[in-house]
Amino acid sequence: MSDAPPIGVVKTSAFTVPTDRPEADGTFAWDKTTLVLCEVEAGGETGLGFSYTGTAAAELIGGPLKKAIEGLSAFDPPRAWTAMQRAVRNLGRPGLCATAISAVDLALWDLKAKLHGLPLCRLLGQARDAVPIYGSGGFTTYTDAELEAQLGGWVERDGCRWMKMKVGTDPSRDPHRVAVAKRAIGGATLFVDANGALSVKEALRFADVFAEYDVAWFEEPVTSDDLDGLRLVRERAPAGMDVAAGEYGYTLDDARRMLVAGAVDCLQADATRTGGVTGFLRVAALAEAHHIDLSGHCAPSMHRHSALAAPNLRHLEWFHDHVRIEHMLFDGAPAPEHGAIRPDLSRPGHGLALRRADAEPYRVA
Predict the structure, then answer these.
(1) pLDDT tens digits, one per residue of 32-64
(2) Model's pTM, two decimal places?
(3) CATH number for the domain harbouring residue 17
(4) How many CA within 13 A on the CB side of residue 72?
(5) Pair 73, 209 in one domain
(6) E-only strand ranges, the chain
(7) Residue 348: how many CA atoms within 13 Å on its side-chain side?
(8) Is residue 306 domain-shared with residue 260, that is, in the same domain?
(9) Looking at residues 10-27, what average pLDDT do you find?
(10) Which domain holds residue 68?
(11) Which of the four pLDDT bands, split at 50, 70 and 90, describes residue 2?
């Protein structure tokens, strides 16, 4: 297609899906998850993107963001991305606004790829053929049997090399829970995620305890707002244990500050929070310039193609809730093979199609 079609209709909707059982981590508990969907039309095609966020993001998409991008070239997502950033200047770019912008940007890249008849990874350019994944769940509400079954299933069924569990709700129980998890996964590698629940001294103490079970990844041992604390834990953690954070980064500056502080061994980035494909690949480039690996956070259907394009990607989080929702609501959601997900090169864009009849019972906006 030689002519650049203008962005036309922008639609949004939201769906809230109950969890399959109560879930909690070190700082939060939940029983449902909301997905905000954006659809953008141009040139006879429709691009699709989404973010896991609040329903208010749908109002932002249907209001200031829609106004900012209508009529712009569908071939130029970075220009639309800049227009959206400016449109929310007085609302505050981080948080809710960032998740709304992310959903639109993801839809715009899907749209561009469809207009060119290409899977998105081919449009972006691939650095690899497959995206390694790690199983993620192990919520603190789980019984020992539930924990064993979930983590063991990722090894046996999906071929995952790494598994992550939540810690921090009741730290006194965590050594036992980590021992249960390690027994379930055998020779695979265990990660733990405290979601910022611990103090620096608690984190250092538990890092030594977790090292006895060969834990190789300690995610958000302290809050990501405490970059000095993260750096201290990173510097004093046992050899072979990486400290990771970054999932709550909404802007390029959030990532830059974490990298400049020397706070992480591996930087996390979430395309549904940090500005879609445009923001995710900018964060990837920034991390690469600091010689730090990148790990994709959650929403595997929205990361599959951009993760293929990031040269410094280590792995992508195969998060239980999001995997379940994406397979419930979309055709074309990724399925793991030998611990990795691959693009379906026969499907353009992200390769997803909303199953509207299946999604409708969960619609809230």
Answers:
(1) 999 999 999 999 999 999 999 999 999 999 999
(2) 0.96
(3) 3.30.390.10
(4) 22
(5) no
(6) 10-24, 29-42, 45-52, 131-137, 162-166, 189-193, 215-219, 242-245, 266-269, 293-296, 313-319, 330-331, 340-341, 353-354
(7) 16
(8) yes
(9) 97
(10) 10-118+356-362
(11) low
